[in-house]
Amino acid sequence: MTQSTGNVFRDLGFPAEEAEHLLIRADLLLQLQKAVAARRLTQAAVAKVLRITQPRVSDLLRGQLHLFSSAQWPQEFDRRA
Question: Which of 36, 37, 53, 77 maximizes the CB count within 10 A of its CB?
Fold first, then answer.
């Protein structure tokens, strides 16, 4: 059995910098999904808070992280109320 590095993306062979970036994005996604579920928010409500369209929220909540550039993440998540 191989010991984990603590970063599943690194364990899968991604370069260290990319693996860290992917882990951060995955963590942000999980936090967003939990917040949406806990507050029972609609996608439309989330879109309003993040100032993005409802289809973009749908993409996010379905884990379509590749559709968002690195530059978009901080801008969209820093807008949280």
Answer: 36
